[in-house]
Every structure is written in structure tokens, then in C-alpha cells.
Amino acid sequence: MSATADNPQAAILILGAGVAGLSAALHLADAGLQPLVLEAALAPGGRARSRFDPRCQEELDNGPHLLMGAYTHTLHLLSRLGTRHQLLAAATPAFTFWDRTQGWHTLTCPDWPAPWHLLAGLARFAPLSWRDGLTALRLAPALLADLAPLEQLSVTHWLARQGQGDNICQRLWYPLCLTTLNEPPASANAALFAAVLKRLFLSNRQAATPLLPAVPLSQLLITPAVTAIQQAGGAVRCRCRVQRLIFSGSHLECVQTEQGHWQRPRAVIAALPPAALVRLLPAWAEERQITTLRSAPIVSVHLTYAQPATLPTALVGLPQETSQWLLDRNRAQGMAAHPSNGRFSAVLSGAYRERTWPAARLIAAVHADLGRLLPALAARPPAMARVIKEHQATFAAWPGTSACRPASQTPWDNLWLAGDWTATGLPATLEGAIWSGMQAAQKILDLLAHGR
């Protein structure tokens, strides 16, 4: 197979059908182009693809996904796809927690302008004192300043510099860091964490509103995106792994795949994982330090109980337990009124230790956590269980990682990059992936608008 500039159907290639690649393809398709997406796997979606699990007899994501009101590009995309209504949204920013000393408690921010809504919420947050709330305000000037100097600091170090006490760190900042960066605070990048706090708490009062998918991610995002790309004239081709990129000077001349080759593509976006890009561009990846970028794991545990059971809210934080967050799948999917069973999922971020645990130990630990919240379940083991270990769930957000995250521009005039691991200024999230794909696609549109 081949493509030339005279054949628009295959002249613009997207390598990778993950969230970043699909975002880029849809942005181009909506502009009237006809991109072709090449995906190595059997189905599109990458890490966001849902799979039917025969043990639990339902379609499962790799783990529970929490979106936020600050995910402006994600929400815009879901509106474009007609699936935004499938997000369970709180009326105000509110997060429910449980621990062995405080029991149940909720951080609820009133409908006040930012950042006063956060201060008011912290003032009524049971585990914190009024001094803790005032201490949090010390972060505001630091978040409004240049964040680049924080790049070499850990979150623990930076928060200590800002006078954040142990109580507010343990109860709020450290769990938030682990959740958003997938990295423990002692080894997490302070600049990235500060960027998250700035977006969540200083932009507008709805930015910190939690949003939970009521359906698996494939139904929410992946399948609708593929359908929209195809309806706009684009195409998605799976089982088509890229084997080699051939260059002529500053131009990408040929993309060779398992299904054939595409010559003289007009534009190419490589929306690939770091390891795949290193394989295809070893010398350049070494020069750009991409080879030094490491991965961080996430472990999720899905449990199904024979008897009906629900949590008070769809999502509960357990910062001092193995299950950092517990998702009530029945409640998230609007099935909590008359459940026929109990369906729960736990997510363990930054799971460097837990990824080495056998499945039985992980299941027992999450079951014990649920038993503390719902004592009726304590003596009744789950009827079905599934453990999913994503060893390369995100890039490791360590201090100094910005030097390893390339921009979308490359030395070649028809090749761009996309992915949540590229230089988005954000951690590895759906928002970062979607934004990176849009950025790369827009650069192609700008180039074409100038007749190049």
C-alpha cells in the first residue's frame, strides 16, 4: 500500500489509536480532512479501552477513572461525541472520605468564587483545624508564580517549604498528589503537582467538581470517537503495527507497517507510547532523553458480591488504607436504588509495592477495606474478583521529568508527536492525552492553511 499527497484518504496518518491519536484524528476530520489511524492492537483505545471480563460478567475498565471539571478539553470532546450526559456529576465540588479515626467525612466546597470556596470547604472539613485551612492559603501566591523552579523539587519538599503541616499533608495534599500524578509525594514532581492545584482551585469553582463515567470508557469515549472519525471520512485500521520509519533529509518519506507501507505521507502524528517511539527513533529518542523516562504502575481490584450492597456515595477516599479510592459501580451507573448485588472497584495509584503482591493478597486487602465500611460484607467473601495490573500505566512523574517530555514538534517537517507523556504541562491524564492530540492536529492544520 502507498499514499501520496494526491491521495488524501491516506495522506495524513495517525500512528496509534489511543486517546491522543483518536483526539488528533477527530480534530483533523472535523476540519474536513480524512486521517487514517493505524493501531497495532486488536482494537482501538489503548489504556482507555474497556474489556469484557468473564469472571465479573461485565465490561471493565483497567480501573476507576475520575474526571474533573477542570478537564475542559475532555468535556468539550464528550459534548462533541454526544456522551457528556453519561458522566455522573456532583452539584458542587465534594469528596467523601473514611478513616479509622474520623469515620465518614466530606470535603464540600460552597458556591463561592475561587479560591474562597476551597477555604470555606477546608474550614468545615472534619480532619482539619482552622489553622490548617489558613495554612492552605499560603499556597496561592506560590501557585500564581512561575512554576518552573519547582521542577527539581519533590512534592514533599515543596509543601514543607510552603509551611504545610503534617495533618493537612496527610489528609489532603498527599492523597491528592498520589491520585493525580500516580506518584507518592516523596518522589513526585512539585511543578506538576502545583500545576494541578492551580487548575483545580484557582481557575473557577467548578474546576474541582468530580465527574464519574456512568459507562465503561469504551462506551463513553473510544467507540463514539471511532464512529465520528469514520462518519467524517477518516478511518481506523487495527492490527497494523508500525515497523519502521524511513526519512529523507528533514522529511518522513515512508511509514512501513505489518500491513504494508505508506510512501510520501503529507503529515504524520506519532501518538505512541514512549517505548514504541524509542524503537522507531532510537538516536533521536536518546538525544531527547526520552529513553530516561520511566513508567509508574496502577493496580485495580474489581469485586462483585452476591448480596446487595452499596456505599453512601459513588466514590470514597481511603487515604490510610490499601484501597486509596473505592468506586461503587452500582451507584456510579445509577443502579443503587434496588441493587441485585454489590459491585466495587478499588484503585491503587503509584503501586510500586502492590504490583508485586499476588492477586489473592490484593483481593483480601480490598475486601477487608470494604468490610470496614460495610460490616455486612466482612464475613462474606466476594463471589467474583478481578485484579488488573498496569505496570506502565503512566510516565513516572519524578522531579526533572520535563526534560524528558518532548514537544509535539520534531526535527522532521511532516512528523509530530502526541500522547499524555509529551510536554503538555499536565500529568498523564485523559485531559493531557486529548489536549496533546488536539495540539498536534492543529499544527498540521496551521501548516496546511499556509499552503505547505
Overview of this protein structure:
This protein is an alpha/beta fold and 452 residues long. The protein has three domains: 8-50 and 217-293 and 398-449, 3-Layer(bba) Sandwich (FAD/NAD(P)-binding domain); 116-205, no CATH class; 295-395, Alpha-Beta Complex (Polyamine Oxidase, Chain A, domain 2), CATH 3.90.660.20. It has 15 helices and 20 strands. It has helices spanning 8-11, 19-30, 72-81, 116-123, 130-137, 139-144, 155-161, 166-181, 190-201, 217-231, 274-280, 282-287, 329-332, 359-373, 430-449; strands at residues 12-15, 36-38, 51-53, 58-60, 67-68, 87-89, 94-99, 103-108, 210-213, 235-237, 242-248, 251-257, 260-263, 267-270, 295-305, 315-317, 325-328, 342-349, 384-395, 415-417. The strands form five sheets. It has a seven-stranded mixed β-sheet, with helices on both faces. Strands 10-2-1-14-20 form a five-stranded parallel β-sheet. Strands 5-9-6 form a three-stranded antiparallel β-sheet, with no helix packed on it. Helix 2 (19-30) runs parallel beside helix 10 (217-231), helix 2 (19-30) runs parallel beside helix 15 and helix 3 packs across helix 15. The model is unreliable at 1-10 (pLDDT under 50).
